[in-house]
Amino acid sequence: MNTTVTATADVPGEAPVLDLTAWTCPAPLRDQPRVVMGHGGGGALSAELVQHVFAPAYGGDALAQLADSAVVSLGGARLAFSTDSYVVRPLFFPGGSIGDLAVNGTVNDLAMSGARAAYLSCGFILEEGVELSVVARVADALGTAARRAGVEVATGDTKVVDAGHGDGIFINTAGIGLVPAGVDLRPQRVVPGDVVISSGAIGVHGVAIMSVREGLEFGVEIESDCAALGGLVETMLAVTPDLHVLRDPTRGGLAAALNEIAVASGTGVVIQERSVPVPPAVANACAVLGLDPMYVANEGKLVAFVPREHAEAVLEAMRAHPLGAEATVIGEAVEAHPGMVVARTGLGGTRVVDLPIGEQLPRIC
Amino acid sequence: MNTTVTATADVPGEAPVLDLTAWTCPAPLRDQPRVVMGHGGGGALSAELVQHVFAPAYGGDALAQLADSAVVSLGGARLAFSTDSYVVRPLFFPGGSIGDLAVNGTVNDLAMSGARAAYLSCGFILEEGVELSVVARVADALGTAARRAGVEVATGDTKVVDAGHGDGIFINTAGIGLVPAGVDLRPQRVVPGDVVISSGAIGVHGVAIMSVREGLEFGVEIESDCAALGGLVETMLAVTPDLHVLRDPTRGGLAAALNEIAVASGTGVVIQERSVPVPPAVANACAVLGLDPMYVANEGKLVAFVPREHAEAVLEAMRAHPLGAEATVIGEAVEAHPGMVVARTGLGGTRVVDLPIGEQLPRIC
User: Fold this and answer.
1) C-alpha distance from residue B182 to each of B79, B238, B302 (Å)
2) What integer pLDDT is reported at residue B10 of this predicted model?
3) Which among A113, A155, A351, B324 has the fewest CB atoms less than 10 Å away?
4) Which of B1, B158, B216 sits opposite A40 (nearest CB)?
5) Mutation to test the A interface, candidates B1, B108, B159, most A Cβ within 10 Å
6) Which residues form the PurM-like C-terminal domain (chains A, B) (predicted)?
7) ipTM confidence
């Protein structure tokens, strides 16, 4: 990536033409010269973009990007630091809004490092012409969600792009929080025998968005599970700081989260398909839409790899918390098939749960 | 802002219709029901958006947004925390790119709190169809700028929006850094008698962008002054930690920066117009374009309010630094006309330098 870029503006008002003839993208992106929706999908294409484009460009420990948040040292403190941009459509949906997502998504990324979010930054990219009243409603939802999560919006920025060059409202939030002493949540700490716990039912957020966006009705309104998980994680860490890894299965769903952990830890993961809680309304909607709930995004759930000796106590503590009332064991880490996730089906068979390539549901968060 | 929002999706694929009939925007935004470019311009409209929409929604100390960065306490450390989104067009311009801006802009916001940037987060919003090679070149520029500024990209995120709903590449960066003990940079610390120092020539970045975007030629190519100011600020603080306020005059230019300081400090500011360094090429371009250099964005300059007893030593230290070689005194804080900035013109007259309303040069950063 050390070629020369010559920027010349041939046409007034046009962006300069880039001479990139000498540039070749490292495989496997080479076959794909342009960005596709899947590059934002949280699956294999997203991971390739980080591994082949961003990580080499940034150097250092930038591969930390592959985790939900980075843990850094500053002024003697261990901080979790994370960012997400939010481009969900529509802006308001059953159970939440882009403002709720912008808080809870980033708060949850910090929680997955064991940190209680302390401060958020908040950058709006507005499209010229969007109603100020809509901006205000989104800001209101964001502020309310922040107060509920106990995090302060400390700094912000607003940019406006010309009509037709944005899409109403995009939001970026970044967050910082303290990682408690003794807490070290990383997929590399997973060992065979670890118990895999889900904090509740999966697939709800993605289906809620799709139903409103596509005007579908499934008899029951499905509300997003969007919620801030900092309190639940505190409850779990109070049982033992020795949890191995936490992940909130957002884009790419439970399947992507488990695959990332399996690959990074070098262990296998076995899921009991019948144990994975999928609400009937979500199962029905997925059947109609041709989706697999394992790949649908969640915004208020987490999956935990817990040492076997602590599993029962952690599960009990989770169930005593409103956001973990339906927590359940869904599988375990195993020595067999390292780096791979398999599901034991209800009929006794076994199937591989692959990392999704791209985007099953675009612009879900 | 406590009205009810009812979201209903009448048309498949359309965003839900918001019932906002009961919502009224507090004056003075009331006259303007939709977002205009000026709301992102760093002038009066931007300030109103923060004061009337964001600050009431977020509560707490969110008015810290009006500063370049917030100073927060975490784990016993004083941290500067800041965010900016970057939507500049074109992506590459003489002297820099959106990748350089995304690093230097946020690093500089932290530097204005006296902090050396330690870690950045980096969120890309990509438009479907943008060339991966362009993404890679931007990431490369961003990584190079980060290494030059001595800051680590610690965490990131990538979202993709459908073609026609974005504009190639938008970037958000947030940054954190330590504020050294004894440093307390706030406009409220400005007192009459403070000396106003500019670190160099103004108006360069904005004119560089405009010239390439509009295909204008002014005889000499004008290169953006985009640079990271952390080192220069360290040099200044080594003379005395008792600087009163620093500001990098980006959107809205020197005029906006001085007005914000005058209003927040309740002092008057007098500028000697002939002392404000404007390169001839910038002056010529501004004459042709009908722009006032005082309102044109800079990306590698700062303005400092320094106690009179330290001014000479600080100026000397600045001039010994490559990014402050042309540092010069441009005015002073005064008791007269509190909250107002006036310029003594070359002919001996006086003019008021107002806060700009909106956007003189859209999408400049």
Assistant:
1) 13, 11, 21
2) 37
3) A351
4) B158
5) B159
6) 192-337
7) 0.92
